């Protein structure tokens, strides 16, 4: 059909039955990516080996070094302090007063139980947590927040939202639904609402790194790391006008684990929003990452494919949590935050010690390319 050769794109050896009708339309083959393993990462008293799908040399090695520093210092700890996927439809009313009436009705605590019951009919696991409305002229943006069990949950939330909108027509027959998504969610875009309010799993992860580990493993000093973090991740990002980008390379680690475990790669945009802090803890270093919108699931989508399921199995979070709905997806979010912590620690150390270029010349540049350059 195209008249172009596709010999390099593999076709055979893939289970297409696993993707038809749920993962990909019109498949013509599949793309292979190398998967490396970093770790063990000691997190919350357990050890994890991190599957990372990447074509960037040095990334797995660097993350592995960060894991080593964390493990040698006693491990990291994490907390998932919020768990709620969001969807925000936009509707319009004939007047700003009617728009305000809808906002007051939806946000009235006396109506929440009824709206929650309507919403929750859509799924066994979807549970409405809250609705926050914003007005723009006669338009109303309704941001629904919902627990989604171990699924990432976008479809689940959308179904619940549709149920509520149909119910609201009984009291607001003049309401016009413009779109099931009005970008106030905000999905697959960097947005202040996610940075402030959170979306998906909101996780904080931290560890104390011993001074001798900083010097022997990371080849730098506590003072140098704190100075660099302030100048780069805090002030430098502020000068750049960053939104949620107060980190060194959180997106690198998030993307690699997302792809390996069958997450939606596009949600790397908001999931990589991260604030990295380096502080002195006596003579040691305390490092933390705060990530308010990690959007992951362990069921549905690409998580059911064989290779991705194997990576989830490696982490011990494949499928639905047997004891508590949502426990596996929350654990995956914590593991990702822990991996980001390791990645931040190692890259910042490479920058502080002036080893970044040397490391990338060794691991991120093919000897064949170097030979060509020499000629």
UniProtKB/TrEMBL annotation:
One of its GO terms (molecular function) is hydroxymethylglutaryl-CoA reductase (NADPH) activity. The keyword Endoplasmic reticulum applies. Keywords: Endoplasmic reticulum, Isoprene biosynthesis, Membrane, NADP, Oxidoreductase. GO terms for cellular component: endoplasmic reticulum membrane; peroxisomal membrane. Its EC number is 1.1.1.34. Transmembrane segments: none annotated. Its main location: endoplasmic reticulum. Pathway: Metabolic intermediate biosynthesis; (R)-mevalonate biosynthesis; (R)-mevalonate from acetyl-CoA: step 3/3. Pfam families: HMG-CoA_red. InterPro entries: HMG_CoA_Rdtase, HMG_CoA_Rdtase_cat_sf, HMG_CoA_Rdtase_CS, HMG_CoA_Rdtase_eu_arc, HMG_CoA_Rdtase_N, HMG_CoA_Rdtase_NAD(P)-bd_sf, HMG_CoA_Rdtase_sub-bd_dom_sf. It is found in: Endoplasmic reticulum membrane. It is a multi-pass membrane protein. One of its GO terms (biological process) is sterol biosynthetic process. It catalyses: (R)-mevalonate + 2 NADP(+) + CoA = (3S)-3-hydroxy-3-methylglutaryl-CoA + 2 NADPH + 2 H(+). It comes from the Eukaryota. It is an enzyme of class 1 (oxidoreductase). Catalyzes the synthesis of mevalonate. The specific precursor of all isoprenoid compounds present in plants. Belongs to the HMG-CoA reductase family. This is 3-hydroxy-3-methylglutaryl coenzyme A reductase. It comes from Dioscorea zingiberensis. The lineage of its organism: Eukaryota, Viridiplantae, Streptophyta, Embryophyta, Tracheophyta.
